[in-house]
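WARN retry 2 of 3 for item q-0093 after timeout on previous attempt; input resubmitted unchanged.
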Amino acid sequence: MKRFTLALAVIALATPAFSQSIPLGEIVSSDRSIRDPLYKVTARYPAGWVVRGVTRWGDRETTLFMGEPTQTGFASMYYRIPSDPRLILDLEWDLREAAKKKTQQRIEGGLADYGIVAGSFSFRLVGDLPALSYVARFTVSSTTYGEYFVRVLSSRGEALFFLRAPLEQFEPLRIAFETMVESVRLP
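OK item q-0093 returned
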């Protein structure tokens, strides 16, 4: 019983260090700008949207949860500026492999019919940084959803953008969300 109680105490003490909510005002401004002074990441979220939360966790990782006020769509911006950046030798291969892993993660997470829409892969620049974007589709409770995914890489880290919405509302939200993707700047 003592071991069990000790294990629970260790978990309880470690949890806040692993995942910590950040007050919105530390990163998000009333002018829709996102400025993280700790990791030197900036972006601007779409007009009319709201940021619902900011969490820091893992190896210098941060996630912002947001969406448009009617909550028909869910969006997030994740970024990681690791203390020990990795060297990428083949950029396109690395981005494609990350897309495969994300697809597998979604399927294992319960989205059995999750699949990337054929022809939606787009290798491009966001600012002066390499990026990959694609659209995927999946079904939950007989509603078809779209997911817009963008991964942006810098020599010091990465940003990932996710937007999910019912398919009939997806495209206007994706267009608005793209303005945020284009605004991101990483160190």
